[in-house]
Amino acid sequence: MQSEKFPLVFAGHVDHGKSTIIGRLLSETGSLPEGKLEAIKNYCKLNSRPFEYAFLIDALKDEQSQGITIDTARVFFSTKKRDFVIIDAPGHIEFLKNMVTGASRAEAAFLVIAADEGVRENSRRHGYMLSILGIRQIVVLVNKMDLVGYSEEVFNKIRDEYSEFLYEIGIKPLGFVPVSGINGVNLSVKSPETPWYEGKTLYEFLDVFKAKEHSAKQPFRMFLQDIYRFTENGDNRRIYAGTVSSGTLNKGDEVVFYPSGKKSRVAKIESFSSDEKTSVEAGCATGFTLTEQIYATRGELVAKVGEPAPHSAMRFTAAVFWLGSEPLNMNRTYFMKIGTARTTLRLVEVSKLIDTSSLESKSGSEVGKFEAAECVFEAGKPIAFDLIGDNQETGRFVIVGDYEIRGGGIILKPLSEALLAHEITQSERERRFGHKAAVITVTDGNFAAELEKNLFALGAFVCYFPELDISQNLHELELLTKSGMLVIIKSTEDARDSLTKRWQNLPVMCLSERENSIEASLNKLRTSGILGL
Fold it and tell me: How far is CA 52 from each of CA 12, 18, 33, 37, 56, rounded to the nearest angstrom?
């Protein structure tokens, strides 16, 4: 089995000490190239500057002069268990687009927060961005503990505050570690400065991270990078080349190209500098020939017949984080890149805007710089993808404008074009049905069914969905209300309170059997303006 390098990102607010932690860790574990440490120390001495471990990572001259990480630096590092690619992502707010590039392929993250400054706006932004990128394995390093006297109280306060934030965005951190990058506290070994801390060191957490189980669990996926044709000396091979994103491909497997749907069978797996292979796994750059030649194009997603197929669509819902100076809006055409595929992209609708610091929802028709949103997009041609929950590698994309990365996102759901037809306006639907659209939540199923019968008898466009869950079906609820429907669902009081707080674009009416009667509930719907138009 091929040994893969585990991609790991360090992220956090500017000056919170990411590069210093990495540099110190590499130095303590003997992972630096020979002479690297001495060269940086000589550089600092010649320039009359104090030595900093961050300079081991920040190799660019302007980074060393300004003291901030501008681009993403990649460092190769190994423990006894596995090899890593450590990515040092920029923390400065103006370089977040580079952080998107650096973290886009990471499988786990260390998020650094300085003990003396606490949780900052960019700490939350980076956490939210990691969530958008589908990274769920996160360890938080509370750095610069030396500046607060290694205070357990300060550490606990930061842990509690940031844990609550991560929980709101669906992340349960693997742990919090009190560290001092400059002094090497709790990096490779437990330190006496924090006797109250009984958890793992940074180094120990490295081996806690779980690599994706490509070959055993995930379907085969490979974005087609190119097709190479050989003609010399009677060679008529066409080699379909790319890097395997997930799963395993074997000689003789039947494959299908998406979105074209063309099929053939693998005749041979090609190798340029090694013995002939009969199979390849995730992370391997490879090529293969087919028993029956087909016409395929760069960007198509190759899968195996008999395994779960990817989605193919032009329209889809996605969660995005926007970095462009100009807002993401419906008046411009952008480009999207997913794998090796590239096509035009148009914003169709902003379903929900999210303040990445407070996580409050708000309405709007465009997405501003450093804002996150759930949006509906339309690509210029059908694209193939997986949902982010099924495959991180084939569910992420970036948005490009004016030849620069403007945003990143994850695909949440493919959409039928019919669902987005807005030739009939909302007011026209209200006049036809005689009521406004709304989600009506109740706590009792029998009461819900009785309410549905009475509303239906009044001529309402209504339906009770007993199995529809608020937390998992927000988009379905929005689409149903856009059709003009009164949607009745059964929900706990806590869940529906969360719905009204976090999903302000959705019209919600909370009823209860405590209204005493169906008639009382109908009167409440009338006085609220939902019924009786």
Answer: 18, 12, 17, 10, 8
Residue 377's nearest CA partner among 298, 312, 320 is 320
CA dist 12 and 214 (Å) reads: 29
Beta bridge partners, 317, equal 376, 413
> What residues make up the domain containing 270?
215-304
- Residue found under tokens 């080699």: 239
Q: Return per-residue pLDDT of the chain as tens, 533 residues.
A: 344 577 778 887 777 777 778 777 776 666 555 555 566 666 666 666 655 545 555 443 333 333 333 334 456 667 777 777 776 554 444 434 444 444 456 678 889 999 999 998 878 888 887 777 777 889 999 999 999 999 999 999 999 999 998 888 888 899 999 999 888 899 888 999 999 999 999 989 988 888 765 444 689 999 999 988 876 666 677 899 998 888 899 999 999 999 988 999 999 998 766 667 888 888 788 999 999 888 888 999 999 999 999 999 989 999 888 888 899 999 898 999 998 999 999 999 998 887 766 666 777 889 988 788 889 999 988 899 998 778 877 888 889 887 778 888 888 889 865 444 445 666 677 778 888 888 888 888 888 888 899 898 888 899 998 877 665 566 677 778 878 889 888 877 666 665 555 444 556 777 765 555 888 888 888 888 788 75
CATH number of the domain that 259 lies in? 2.40.30.10
Do 333 and 253 share a structural domain? no
Specify the CATH number for the domain of residue 141.
3.40.50.300
Going edge to edge, which strands form the sheet with 438-442?
462-464, 486-490, 438-442, 508-510
DSSP, residue by residue, 200-229? --HHHHHTTSPPP-HHHHSPPEEEEEEEEE
CB 365 within 8 A of CB 348: no
3-state percent helix, strand, coil for the chain, nearest multiple of 5:
25, 35, 40
Closest CA to 245 of 228, 221, 263, 224: 221
| Residue 498 contacts residue 470 (beta carbons within 8 Å) | yes
Q: Could you tell me if 521 and 495 are in contact, meaning their C-beta atoms sit under 8 angstroms apart?
A: no
| Tokens read off for 9 | 């990102």
Q: Does some domain include residue 532?
A: no
**Interacting residues of 54 by C-beta distance below 8 A, sequence separation 6+:** 17, 19, 20, 23, 67, 69
Q: Are 13 and 142 part of one and the same domain?
A: yes
Tokens representing 392 are 């991180």
- Structural domain contains residue 68: yes
Domain tally for the chain?
4
**Residues 411, 376: Cα–Cα separation, whole Å:** 10
- Phi-psi group of 24: left, alpha or beta (phi > 0 → left; psi -120 to 50 → alpha; rest → beta): alpha
Q: Tell me how far apart the alpha carbons of residues 12 and 111 are, in angstroms, rounded to a whole number.
A: 5
Task: Tell if the pTM clears 0.85, that is, is over it.
Answer: no
344-359 pLDDT, tens digit per residue, is 999 999 988 877 666 6
